[in-house]
Amino acid sequence: MLTITQSELLHRIRGFAIGLLAFVQEKPALPILVVKAPKEAILAAKLSSFLKIYVVPVHINGFDSMGLITAFFDDSDEPLIIRSQLFAEDAATESLMATLRASEIDLHFFDEHSREMLAYRSKVLMPKPTALRLNSISLERFDGVNHGAVDDQMQRWFSQRTPVDDESAITVRLGEPLMPEEIVVLNSNAPNHFYRGSPSIILASLEREDPGAPQEHDIALLLGRIFLPEQIIRSPLKVTDNEEAADILVVTKKHLIIIQAKDSPNSANILNNTISRKKATAKKSLRKAVKQLAGTIRYARMQDPMTIVVDNKNLAFGVSGLQWRAIAVVKELFSDNFSEYSRLLLRLNEDTGVPSIALDYAELNMYTANLIDEASFITAIDKVFNHGINTGAFPRLRIF
């Protein structure tokens, strides 16, 4: 496990939200490629025993350049992907390019919380035309790039890729495991148990049959990048009937943020579902989350201060003077279904008056990794919500 054998690398791994990170070592040690990805993508790589890295053409500032898309094949046509932009005069890009040129590497999978889940000795199979492109293309400096426009180009190219593009992709084949393939990460360190309602011991595993509690914990950890420990409350109960009031509340001096989370098992059966079934599940999950958000809003308005039960203790918060926001967090949202998602959220706002948006878990990870404080987090929510109010359709807000 890289976490144990080269723990000095962890600060670098913790320093980026998602994507590829390479470490070139002195021979005879093999180059190390870290793939930081959602648990669903990691499980897809484990089940298929490979991943593909596409060298994607992009046009920047009048000349041709490229980026990388890493694909994890839970579905042959619409695999899970992570996108990586490449830059000139950038040490991380240079290390990544050198690692991809190697025929054999050590491949390590980390989730968004920098927990190492899998590792393999792996073969890198690169078609000759792709190798020539990697060696010949010019790159732009980081500060000279319109990152949103490049990201749009990369996604558009991938959605229109051809069988020839699939054949030209770099294939990384997983070989001998470098750590047990079925592990449970047990964490009892104080920094991971800072929020209200946190259990004393946290167990994290790649495959999850009962996803609710682990997902709530992971969301609380994401929010902990922005908010203070005492502001985050997990699984508060109503004093009226001892039923759960919300999955997570965030209560600050200015805001009440109500979060309802919906996940599904991370298992082979679920991962192998068709795209149509995954889309249907996402809609169903969002409908449930919206209904529960409405119930939490009604409860919060019953009394001021709002009283909840956490760890068998009553807590009271004055909420009538706060600005309220509601967020539904689901496992995965699909861009071509946003008109349907938007109708649910706009109806919730009409019924409650509370600005409400939906994020999938990967989006929430990017929000909390790149937004530096409460004000910027609320600004991002409001930008999405106001666009939805003005146009009738909520956008995906890219956070770099």
Structural write-up:
With 400 residues, this protein is of the alpha+beta class. Helix content is 36%, strand content 28%. It has 13 helices and 18 strands. The protein has helices spanning 2-5, 10-14, 39-48, 91-100, 128-136, 147-159, 163-168, 212-223, 268-271, 275-300, 338-352, 361-370, 374-391, and strands spanning 19-23, 32-36, 50-60, 63-72, 80-85, 104-110, 116-125, 170-177, 184-187, 202-205, 232-234, 237-238, 248-251, 255-262, 306-310, 313-317, 323-330, 356-360. Strand 15 and strand 16 (313-317) form a beta hairpin. Helix 10 (275-300) packs parallel to helix 11 (338-352). The radius of gyration is 22 Å and the shape is globular.
Write a short abstract of this structure.
By secondary structure, the chain is an alpha+beta fold.
Secondary structure layout plus pairing:
Blueprint: H1 2-5, H2 10-14, E1 19-23, E2 32-36, H3 39-48, E3 50-60, E4 63-72, E5 80-85, H4 91-100, E6 104-110, E7 116-125, H5 128-136, H6 147-159, H7 163-168, E8 170-177, E9 184-187, E10 202-205, H8 212-223, E11 232-234, E12 237-238, E13 248-251, E14 255-262, H9 268-271, H10 275-300, E15 306-310, E16 313-317, E17 323-330, H11 338-352, E18 356-360, H12 361-370, H13 374-391
Parallel strand pairs: 2-6, 14-17, 17-18
Antiparallel strand pairs: 1-2, 3-4, 3-8, 4-5, 6-7, 7-8, 9-10, 11-13, 12-15, 13-14, 15-16
Mean pLDDT: 92
Could you name the CATH class of the largest domain? Alpha Beta
CATH architecture of the largest domain: 3-Layer(aba) Sandwich
Q: Span between N and C termini?
A: 29 Å
| Shape, per Cα inertia axes | globular
Helix content bin = 25-40%
What's the total count of β strands?
A: 18
Counting helices, strands and paired strands, the structural category is alpha+beta
- Work out the radius of gyration: 22 Å
